[in-house]
Amino acid sequence: MVSTSSDGRALHDAPSVDLHDRQRSDYRPLTELFRELRDETTDLVRNEVKLAKIELGEKVSRVGRNSAYAALGSIFSTAALVILMFAAAAGVYAALVEGAGLAHMTSGWLAPLIVGGIGLLIGLALLWKGLRTISSESVVPQRTVDSLRDDKQWVERKVG
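Above: the chain's sequence. Below: its structure in C-alpha cell form.
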C-alpha cells in the first residue's frame, strides 16, 4: 500500500522481513525437496510420453499417407510398363529380323528375353534402392530420446 507523508513524499508500506526469516525460507526440509523432485519427475515423464505419442503418430501418419501414394503409383506404373515392354519387344523383334537378319522364330523368343532382362535389371535396382531407403528410416522417436537424455541429466544434477 502507498501513502503520502506530510511533505508529499510517497511512503510504501512494505512488510518487514527479518533477515533470519529470509534465510530460513531458502532452506526447505529434505522431504519437501524430495516431494518436489517426485512431482517434477512425474510431470516430466508424462510430458515425455505425450511427446513420444505425438512423434510416433506423425511418423505413422506420414508412412501411411506415402504408402497409399506408392501403392497407387505402382498400380498405374505396372500397367504402363507392361504396355511399354510389349512395344519394346516388338521393336527389338523388328530390329533382329530386319537389322540382324535373324529368323522370325529366333527373333520371336530373343526379343522378349532381351527386353525382359533389361526390365528385370532396372526393377531390381529400383527395388534395392527402395528397400535400402526404407530400412534406413528409424521408427525410434529421436526427439523423445534426445529429450529423455536431457531429462536424465537434469535429474542427475538435481539429485547429485
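The longest helix spans residues 30-99.
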